[in-house]
Design brief:
alpha+beta, Rossmann fold, Dna Ligase, domain 1, D-amino Acid Aminotransferase, Chain A, domain 1, 8-stranded antiparallel sheet, 21 strands, 24% strand, globular
Length: 551
Amino acid sequence: MSASHNKIVRPEEHESDNEVKTPQGLPSSRTLSQPQHQRSRVQRQPVEVDGQQGDDARKQAVVVVDPMSTGAVLAYEFMKRMPCIRVLSRDFPPAIANCVLPGLKLDWAADIRHNGDIRETVEALHSTGYHIVSSVAGCETGVEFNDELAQLLDVPHNDPQFSLCRRNKYEMVERIRECGIRAMRQLKASEWSQVEAFLRQQEGSGIPFFPAVIKPVQSSGTDGVYLCASRDELQRRFHELVGHENMLGEVNEAVVVQEYLRGREYVVDTVTHNGHHKVVALWCYDKRPANGVHFVYFGLKLISADEEPAQVLINYTKSVLDALHISEGPGHCEVILTDNGPVMVEVGARPHGGEGAWLPIPNRCLGYNMCSVMVDAVMDEQAWNDIPDVPLLTTHFGAELCFVSFTEGRIKAIRHLPEVTSMKSYLSHTLWNDLSVGSALSRTVDLMSVPGSVMFVSEGKEQLDRDMKRFHQLNEEGFFEVEEAESDEGKSSADPQTQDEACDYDRRNSTGQGEKPHLATPAVSAQPGSVTVSTPSGPAAASNQSSIYFL
C-alpha cells in the first residue's frame, strides 16, 4: 500500500542516540546484584547499515510488541542502552494499555499502532529511520503477532508456523503430546454437546475425571479458570465463559476442559537465544483455596537449580520449549509435579507477568533477571555467554508473598504493615491501584483481585522462612479493616501520604536516594485503516490504575 494511506510522523532524533536517560538514583539491575555478575557494559558502537557508517548511519533500535506488565520493564531495560519502539498489536482498554509498574519511565523512540495490515506496520517501522535489530513480545497478546512481525523484519524470531501452539492453551498441550512429552487429558469445546461426549468417553475408560478444570482457550493468569467438582458445575461454568469477553478483551470462542493435576506447581523462567535455552529463575507457587475458589495466589518462592526437584523441571521444560519451537526470546513454563512426573499446565512465550514487581528478587539473589538477560542476548553476546545455564542460589534467598483479602467493603484501616516492613528479610511492598484508606476492596478470588504483594530477600533460608510464616499468619488475621461500601462513588480513594509511602520502581531497585521516576506512556492516535506512528517530544503522564497483575 502506498505511503499516502499512512499517517506517519517521523521521529525527532534523541538527545543521544547511544544513551537513554534513566531516573536519578536508578542504577542498572546488576548494580544491586551479587559480585560475580557485576561488570562494565560494552559501549555501543556506531552500526554500519547499507554501506553507511558514523553519524549519518541509521541507529539501531529494538521493538517491543504490547509492552505491558513485565514487558514494560523489559522495554525500560532496553531503553537504558538503545532506542526502543513500542508497537501495539491492536486497540486495548486503558486498564491494560496502562498496565505499567508504578514509577517506571518509558520514553519511546517511536510509537506504532498496528491497524490490520502487517506490511504497513513493517513499512512504518522502516520509516522511523532506525535499523531494527530485535522484536520481542511484551505480553500474551503480542505473542502471535510478534512472530510474524519479527520474521518480516528479518530479525531472530520463533517460527510463525507454530505460533498458535505457543498461544492457544489447548494446542500447546496437544503439540507436546505429539512430540511424546507427558501431557494432561483435555478437550477443546465450543458446544456443550462436545463436553458431554468427552465425559462419556472418560467414564468408559474407568479413570475418574472429576474434579475438572475449565478455562478459556486464550487468556492469561487465572482469568476464567475454575475447578469443577461435578458435571452440573462444569456445565454452568461452560455457559459463563463461552461467548463472553475475557480480561484481555477477547471473546471466548471456546474453552478447554482439562483433568485436574494433583501436585505442587512450579514456574520455570527462561530466555532463549539462537535456540540455546537458559533457565533464569525457578519458582515454587503457593496457590490455595480461599473465598470459595480454588486457585488463589498466596505467593511464590525462588528455588535453586541444585535443589529437588529442579533438575527434573529444567529437563522437562527444555523439552517443552523445543516442542513448541521456541528458539528466541523470554518465556515461562508452568509445571505441576505429579506422582507420575512433571506435566505442563501452560507456557507463555513472553516475560513472566506480575508487572515485573518480582524482578528485584532475582536481582538480589542471582545477580540478573529475565529482562536483563534478554537485553544481553540482543546487545552483548559476551554478557549473554556469562549468564549461567541454570540459576544457583548461594548467599541470598527470596520470595514474593501476596496480600489476600478475605473481606470486602471500603477500607477503614490497613493493619500490620509496620510489622511487615520491619521484618529482617523485607525488601519492598506494593499496594495496587494506590490502595489506601477509603479505597474499595474486594475479596481476593484471582490475580485481578490481589491487593498487592511484598518482596522478601534474606541472606539465610531460616530467616526467610520465619518471615514468610509470620506474614501468612498476618494475612489470616487480615491486613484490611473495612466498613460497608458507601454509595458515593465520587469519594476519593487516594490518600497522598499513603501513596507517597508506597514503594515505586526506583525504591524497589535502588538503595540510593533520588527523585521518583516519572511514569510516562505516550499517547497514540489511531487512524482507521492505517498505521499510526507518533513520537512525543517529551514524556507524558499516564494513569496507572491497572490491577492487571498477570499479563
